[in-house]
Fold:
Amino acid sequence: MSKWQRSKYVGVSLVGKTLAVLGFGKVGSEVARRAKGLGMHVIAHDPYAAADRARAIGVELVTFNEAISTADFISLHMPLTPSTSKILNDEAFAKMKKGVRIVNVARGGVIDEEALVRALDSGIVAQAALDVFTEEPPSADNKLVLHENVTVTPHLGASTMEAQEGVAIEIAEAVVGALKGELAATAVNAPMVPAEVLSELAPFVVLAEKLGRLAVQLVAGGSGVKLVKVTYASARGPDDLDTRVLRAMITKGLIEPISSVFVNLVNADFTAKQRGIRIAEERIVLDGSPENPLEFIQVQIANVESKFASAMSETGEIRVEGRVKDGIPHLTKVGSFQVDVSVEGSLILCRQVDQPGMIGTVGTILGEQNINVSFMSVGRVAPRKHAVMAIGVDEEPDKETLTKIGEIPAIEEFVFLKL
Structure:
């Protein structure tokens, strides 16, 4: 092997060691994920990293000085900018633990190479693995290439057969996913949400769209929607929850049932603005464990009339609210009435006088038409007073069946909603 290609095996236990990832973008987060799997404690420094992304992987975001002073291993994954040029210099090396090991697969210029040589010679840095250099390819007499405690590789990762095959597969999978309407973590013209955060938010993304669809179908006429308020309740801090994807999916749910427009993550905000719909977002910070990203999502539509009066809140807006239970999105409130139904298939909402036999009567009508009931929930003000019955159905009832339900004496109003 040439000195440029050489590598050597050095046995170092990783379990319990601290890895500092400098630059917590796509590559840095993937390195962090794998290091966690090897039993390492991982910290990261990146002034632009979202706390929810780090939390989803189990990584602690820290300051630059804290990262370099506490790490046993330092892995660099940052771009070369004026602020990162020679960020690892004599001053930085002086703050590191003696015997630290450094991996640089970012850009050569982020390390002061002369300073690194001095740190290696003094023993501050025990070993370094470098894929990049200030000058590429480096000269034959480059001190780092010749150093016995440095392993070097030729910065050709993207040009290998394995990398080209991997990129081709990733592109094909992304295209197939996009054609299926799935969310993409790598789209450059959509909200950039890391894959791990997207996975955590997935059931809430479904819930957001369904709440939008429910809310707009409760509007008499539909097209009069101009002001929508969305409330997110979470035990996580305001900076730990990126709601752009959720807002886009609520917009999709609001617009698609009343238009021929296909709404996606890219055009959601523009489409809402084009139709004069203003979406105001509010966050409620709750006490408790931040294990789940959200406790509930609430959607309110103001200044409209409702085809189902019970969906109106005390302040005069159409209001629906939902939660994720055991990974399944549920509708949990309509107006001021508590319900509990999975948001799948279709939904019949009935306001009725709370009395015995109502569930059986409605269920019998649906059963006679071979319509399967998936969920049923009743929320009431008080016994024998008013109640709202939410019925999930797998098939769409015909007009005759809905008319029979409406003719039940105790039912005061009802509405059928497609989910």
Observations:
- Residues 195-217 form the longest helix (23 residues).
- Residues 271 and 370 are 39 Å apart (CA to CA).
- The first strand starts at residue 18 and ends at 22.
- The chain is about 30% helix and 25% strand.
